[in-house]
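Summary of Year 1 activities. Much of the first year was spent building the evaluation harness for sequence design. The harness presents a backbone, in tokenized form, and records the residue chosen at every position. We chose the following record to illustrate the format because it has been used consistently in internal testing since the harness was completed.
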């Protein structure tokens, strides 16, 4: 394969992974902008809304070990496209569900469907790019995927008001089906003639022993804590707490809430790229500590000023979006402590 054609294939691989990441973020964060609509149309209480949103993240987290085993067995292409098929079903159920249990089931299916989007992308990128380029490509894929967070704020709120949230999810099911076909037909696990990073097939026992080895690693507790509070903090505010908070405190409509969340989504999108550039001048340890202190300070400000002017609250929420990008540094640096 010539250098030009290899570069073109890398570009097409990167584009399809970014598109998949964008769609995953839309499905993941879609309930924030329409939360009051769900409370009105379905009769959701705040607690029920929290459960409906929370099961998504629980299901996605529980799927990570099975996804790793599936990728090892079948490769990224089949695993990612196969899981997205489940997301199609989830989006369709969400569009027609009339009860709490129906919507919760739909969220679980969508979570299972997108559970391979990030780890699957990392595995494919590892086969297509050198170890020197991998952190940059991973940061780019995550940052570009945050476009989905933006689309799930003001644009989704506008579409919901224009067409209704049920029709929006019908549309998302169609888009997800197109994504399944695109990934299956376009994505390749490795360049022609080169083995994929998953070419070493292990038995189920070996897979499980590898998982246990990770938990026994003396660095594991520290990484778990850092990953638990890095990007999830931003995601929690952006996808669950932000919309209802702005509605209850400032009585903002769907579009106005979407504007604030859109701004937060922009900073969340730029954050991985920002931390990637800062790594040229600061150590990973300094950036992780700084990012955590920065996030804690903003959360403290929001907690101590519950009746702050809207402009100040909006500014703090938008600034909070910058804090999650150091999670990318944790993931890439973790390769040194958890070798394959």
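For this record, the design step produced the sequence shown next.
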């Amino acid at each position: 394969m010539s250098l030009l054609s290899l570069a073109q294939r890398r570009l097409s691989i990167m584009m399809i992974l970014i598109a998949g990441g964008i769609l995953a973020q839309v499905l993941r964060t879609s309930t924030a902008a329409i939360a009051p609509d769900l409370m009105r149309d379905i009769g959701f209480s705040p607690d029920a809304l929290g459960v409906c949103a929370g099961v998504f993240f629980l299901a996605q987290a529980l799927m990570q070990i099975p996804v790793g085993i599936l990728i090892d067995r079948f490769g990224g292409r089949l695993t990612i496209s196969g899981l997205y098929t489940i997301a199609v079903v989830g989006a369709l159920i969400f569009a027609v569900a009339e009860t709490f249990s129906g919507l919760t089931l739909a969220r679980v299916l969508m979570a299972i469907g997108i559970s391979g989007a990030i780890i699957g992308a990392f595995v494919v990128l590892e086969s297509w790019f050198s170890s020197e380029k991998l952190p940059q490509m991973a940061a780019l894929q995550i940052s570009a995927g945050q476009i989905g967070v933006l689309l799930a704020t003001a644009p989704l709120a506008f579409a919901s008001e224009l067409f209704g949230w049920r029709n929006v999810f019908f549309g998302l099911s169609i888009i997800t089906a197109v994504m399944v076909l695109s990934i299956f037909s376009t994505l390749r696990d490795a360049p022609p003639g080169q083995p994929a990073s998953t070419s070493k097939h292990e038995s189920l026992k070996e897979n499980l022993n590898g998982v246990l080895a990770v938990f026994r690693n003396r660095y594991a507790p520290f990484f778990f804590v850092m990953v638990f509070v890095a990007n999830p903090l931003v995601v929690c505010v952006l996808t669950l707490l932000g919309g209802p908070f702005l509605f209850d405190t400032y009585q903002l409509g769907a579009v106005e809430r979407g504007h604030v969340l859109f701004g937060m989504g922009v900073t969340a999108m730029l954050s991985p790229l920002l931390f990637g550039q800062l790594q040229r001048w600061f150590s990973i340890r300094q950036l992780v500590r700084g990012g955590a202190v920065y996030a804690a300070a903003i959360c403290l400000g929001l907690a101590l000023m519950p009746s702050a002017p809207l402009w100040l609250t909006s500014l703090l929420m938008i600034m909070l979006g910058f804090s999650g990008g150091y999670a990318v540094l944790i993931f890439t640096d973790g390769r040194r402590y958890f070798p394959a």
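The chain has a mean pLDDT of 82. Quantitative recovery figures across the full test set are reported in Table 2.
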